[in-house]
Amino acid sequence: MLRRAGEWFLRSGIQESGGGVARFYRSDLAKNARVSTEITGYAVSTLLYLAERTSDANYTEAAVRAARFLTRSAWNTPLSTFPFEHCANGSQPQHLAYFFDCGIIVRGLLAAWRATREQEFLDVAVQTGHSMIVDFQARHAIHPIVSLPGKRPLAYEPKWSASPGCYQLKSAMAWQDLFEETGERTFQAAYDNALENALESAPFFLPGEVDREKVMDRLHAYAYFLEGLLPCAQRVECVKALTEGIARMEKYLNEIEPMFARSDVYAQLLRVRLFAAQLGIVPLDETQASREATQAATFQLQNSDPRIDGGFAFGRRAVEMLPYVNPVSTGFCLQALALWGDHLSGTLNAKRYALV
């Protein structure tokens, strides 16, 4: 599984020669979506995880190319931010910056810094972390999107990705990671503020929609909240949130999956279970974990086309697989299944920094 997923990252063309990674591959159209800065950040973390698991230098080389694309092509030096997506040709995306994207990119750059000690990765990560505080953080919320170049917050919309919410804690982990790398307490204070806001809003995030497919999408976002709790997982309030959150995700996932299921939701829930069990916070439900691993594995694709083979599909509607071969789904699933294999062999040693 790991080898085939890794080969997809290296051979499918999802990563362009300049290092940037496309949001997904449309198998029905035989076409990549536009390069995404956020997805490139995820890819850096995934490729370095593959390098650690396999000792294959090809993954490190691909990760460094992706990280250098972020620091040398995607990074907007005058604005000290990462604009939404990236266009070398074709339609130009809107001039926006997303808090969530910036946090994912910072975590990818920090992973590259730890692996290579190339100073530019740390320098841009630190600058981005500071600009995230200035550009997005308000007292009781984090603005999800700002316009560029003025960096004015966009009006909130009902959909979860365009409103403040507990899901933002996954990206706020970048601040905690930056504090641990630099010792700058400003970063830890920013994470603590995001944690407080997330704990307050999380009980109201699910189901959040009447449409069951949209609830499945919100499960993906809610899992980001649970992942974002890992730096403070031993705190009483975080133990409670993780315990209740895992149960809530399981309930909704089991209800909705016959009509619509996302591969990343299975993987995210399985990863959180394994982290929480390793930390001694939530005992592992072996039956549910095994079921989630089995379901996640069904999304890995077999095909004679190298643009598809080994990658993981985004999701399926009833029994029909959707035509999106997705790098984030692939990264989440390969990591979740690798960790599950470690658990079964008694060698689980999940590291928060390595969480894709």
Description:
The protein is mostly helical and 356 residues long. It has a single domain, classed as Glycosyltransferase. The chain has a three-stranded antiparallel β-sheet with strand order 3-2-10. It starts with a helix and ends in an 11-residue tail after the last helix.
* Relative helix content: 55-70%
So what's the CATH class?
Mainly Alpha
CATH topology: Glycosyltransferase
Structural class, from helix and strand content? mainly alpha
Helix-strand pattern = HEEEEHHEHHEHHHHEHHEEEH
Question: Reading side by side through the largest sheet, how are the strands ordered?
Answer: 3-2-10
Number of separate helices: 12
Computed over alpha carbons, the radius of gyration is 19 Å
Number of domains: 1
Largest sheet: 3 strands, antiparallel
The CATH architecture is: Alpha/alpha barrel
- The overall strand count is 10
Straight-line N-to-C gap: 17 Å
Mean pLDDT: 96
Percent strand equals 5-15%
What spatial form do the alpha-carbon principal axes imply? Answer: globular
